Amino acid sequence: xxxxxxxxxxxxxxxxxxxxxxxxxxxxxxxxxxxxxxxxxxxxxxxxxxxxxxxxxxxxxxxxxxxxxxxxxxxxxxxxxxxxxxxxxxxxxxxxxxxxxxxxxxxxxxxxxxxxxxxxxxxxxxxxxxxxxxxxxxxxxxxxxxxxxxxxxxxxxxxxxxxxxxxxxxxxxxxxxxxxxxxxxxxxxxxxxxxxxxxxxxxxxxxxxxxxxxxxxxxxxxxxxxxxxxxxxxxxxxxxxxxxxxxxxxxxxxxxxxxxxxxxxxxxxxxxxxxxxxxxxxxxxxxxxxxxxxxxxxxxxxxxxxxxxxxxxxxxxxx
Length: 319
What we know:
The chain is α/β, with parallel strands linked by helices. The protein is about 35% helix and about 15% strand.
C-alpha cells in the first residue's frame, strides 16, 4: 500500500488555527479519560487516553507549544486512532492540561528527560504491543532529541516514531517567529505563556523577573526571561543551541518519519536537516505545502484527514 497523497488547499498556522482560520472545521474531540501521573521530582503530568483496546498498538502524542488534547492535530489524530481500533494517549507537558503544575519548572523544547521516566511507566501496560510516538512541533523536537540521545536503546520502548513540523534548529525557528507576519503567531503564544510565567513569578519569588516577563514581546525575550531561567540555561541562545535536535538526528536508530512542510512560516526551509545529517533509520518527507501543522485539504471548508492517515500508514508499513 502506498502512502496517501497530499493535495492541500491551504495551510494553517499552528495550534490555535481554528481561531485564526474561521473557515476551518475543528474535528470533534474524541472521548478521552484523564490520568494523572506523579513525576519523580514531585510534580505531575496529565495523560488523556482513548478507551482501551486489548491487544492493539498504542499511539502516543507529544503536543506542540501551548498545545493539549484539544489542539486540532490531537483531535484529528486521536479520532483516526480510535477509528482504527488502536489505543491512543495525549501526553500533556507540565502546566498544559488546564491546571498549573506544582514546581517552578515548566516545559521546554529540549525536555527529553521527561520521556526517560514516562515511557517506562506507559509502555509496559501495552503487554508487548507496538508503541508508536508522534511529536508535533515542540514535541517533535523533544522526541527527535530523545531518539538521538538513546540510539539503539530507544527500540526497547518504541517501535517507530514520527515528527511533524519540528523546529529541529530552535535558533532558526525562534528568530523566524520574531520576524514579519510571524509576530502575529508569537503574540498568540505569548497571550497564554506570559500570564502563566507571571503566576510562577508570584508563587516563587526571586526566581523570575516579573518586569522582564511583562515586557517580553518576542519569543527570544520570553526565552531569555523565563524558559532559560527555569531550566538551567544561560539565556535563549544557550537554550536554543543545547536543545536543538538536528545535530542528533544521525544517531537515531528507530524508524522515524521526519515530516516537514517547506512553506512552514515558523520553521525555515533552510534550517531543515539535509540527508547527510540523518541516519539511515530516518525517512525525511518534506512536502511543498502544509504550513505549520496544517495539512488542510478540501474546499470550501478544510479537513485534516491527510496527516493522521500518513502517520498511521507509516506506523503500519514503515514507509
